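Tutorial sheet, problem 5. The two components below are modelled jointly, 762 residues in total.
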Amino acid sequence: MRIKFSEITLKPILLISLWLIFFLSPLLSVFRFYFVVNNNLLGFHIKGFSSLLLYFPVFISVLVFLSLVLWFSEFIDKKLFTVHKKTLAILSLLNIVFLVAADSLRNLEYRNYPNFLYGNFGITVSQLEFMSFVAALELIMFLFILAYDLAFKIRGATKWRSNIVSTAKTEKASLFLAVAGFSGLVILSGYTFLNLPLMIKQEKRGYDAKVGIVYKYLVLLSDHTPKNAKVIHPPQGEKWSAIGNQPLIRYFLYPRVLISGALLNNLEFAKTIADAYFPEIDPTIDSTHWPKIDTINRTIIFDEKSEIRYKKLETIFESEEGRVFRVLF
Amino acid sequence: MGEFIVSVIIIIVMLSKKLFFFSIEPQYSASILGKLELGSLIVLFILGMFAFIKGARLYLRGRTGKRTSKKFDLLNLLLLVSVVFTIGMSLLINLNKTSLHWDAIALYDARAKFLEGGMKFSDMPTLSKYDNLNKYYYLLYPPYTSIGHFFWRNIGIFSQVPVGVYYSVTLVLLVAIVFFVAKESLGLRAALLLVLVAASNYSIFNISIKEYTNLPYALYIVAGILLLFSYLKTRKLWLFLFGVFFVSSSIWIRLLEPMWIAVSLAFGIAVFSKRHLLRWSLPFAILLVLSILQYVSWAYFTKVIAGNPGFLNFSPMTIIEPFVAVFTGAPIVVITTVARVWGAPFFIHFLALAALLLRWRLVLQKREILFLGLVLFFSISLYFLEFYFLSFQVDWWSTIAKSLDRSSTFLIPVSGYLLIYLITSSKVLVRRG
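Model answer (structure tokens):
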């Protein structure tokens, strides 16, 4: 039974067929996106068909990965002949083409916007990355077989002394795992080189890209408040993850004293602050607009809950970028 | 010789930063713990220098005067060019940067800025007086990286160069120490291959273009592990002394992951000998005690001198809860989450360990390989344990688990070494001809 299974898995035609399905599997994602998700095919709905098409490419990738593992263990057992190596050579050439194509598609996503590939073709970046990993693994495995064929030969079972045949088996398994692990390291290195253009581009970005759109408020505060000023900022949390993060904004505002709006929940505390500056955040977006100013009742809400009465409020600076206020309690 | 020169450079960098820290923190430098901390490192350095000079004299006396030329073929040249290209790309990116990364803005470079403003570390918690969430933040990480940024900005020739270049220089030192140690035991080609897969590894390259503590930490802990590895192989005293210096002083770079425990445990087991109990226990005790000293002295500085609040809650309940939760399946959630966010590097470390386990006879024969294998095993176990306990303390544990890829980079050269060693020493493949 085991021999039969081994014979079947070693058939070059099986590996080539699997590999062709593997290469063409992104087309299933495209089909799913255009004819199943966006447009109900021929007017009838099959329950689970969309999920099947979503997971089938992953299933195929896992299948070719397993077939590769089996072929490599056969190589260790000296059962790979010229025809098998030629098959791997053909697949390696196809893999190079695939890796270049996958990289171009990934770059297309980064050049446009997140989810661009899925939005237009129904293919995800993680799907491409997993397929690239499997393709790169085949390529490295072939190169390994080629290099070792030239430099080494595999010791046959008869060359081992009979009392250590079991040791030979574990040594073979150990070698297989070590080669698989090292291939993983090579793939991670390859990933670095493939991503170099993107990394160069990303690292050239300024603070407006790294901190986000709220960086403009930090520039306003830095330019229009004195260095010994006290500055109130929004509470830290999901709404104001950057502008509410005191250690982060201190880098741009030091040596000013920073006060989290979350602490301004009563007038007694506000009076100890006495005189402070703050920017108006997102005046046109209701959910992240901060702080809530009521000029009629002369109150401000800094912590999203408590109304604090102020003595005087003046606009220190105003432009298209935003406003900076000075408040006296 | 190469590893000695690189080690001395790295040690001088650490000692100069420690001396600067002592000069601005008089209360700490006057304390017994402070004196012990710096004194022990200086003693390790001086003794290591003496041990090296003594060993070098014996070596020169024993030499016949003939030098063997080493083969440097096209493949080796290609590997070398690839390593230089990788480091060059890191340098190019760092030279052209216009902004720093988030954590550097919030902490590492920010503290350098405060130092420039005349502030000392023990004053920094006062900055968070009006912050409801980050009171512990400025002393959560030891000062090594920030002092490095401060030096970089204030040393004439470097001040005009972006601080990111400091990290490319750190990458060069990491590559150099890995290369010199690996060349001795694996040979020139395998050593070049190892430094290529290490330097160009996505996780390592990524931290060479980020102004974080990760790469300096990787440099010190990898240097420590590899020198202790060489000590187990050659029993040269200077390797042990410098190795202890690196492992213990790595705590002064990153404190949150106690990987020195993993290295100390691995070393203790690897040097264990029933017959020579003193010869076993003394090196282990030196490594453990000096590492604990570094840990305790920083904790003393942050708590007693600077009055920094902690961010973890240690009540009887928070200690009992994780033990009880073992029976409710909580570890499975942590294991699957950590393995998933760690990703490919975890898979590689796992394969290296499994491959090593299958050749356990060889591992037991070679103490230095056993040491590397145990470092890998204990480090992975510690990461899982750390996240398991953290999962009962803070609900953002799975978010910080995402930084595991960065903080565990020191394991890449260790796994890389083991994998190459297992392939090249395999008896399954025999050379043709």
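Marking note: The radius of gyration of chain A is 31 Å. Full credit if you identified this.
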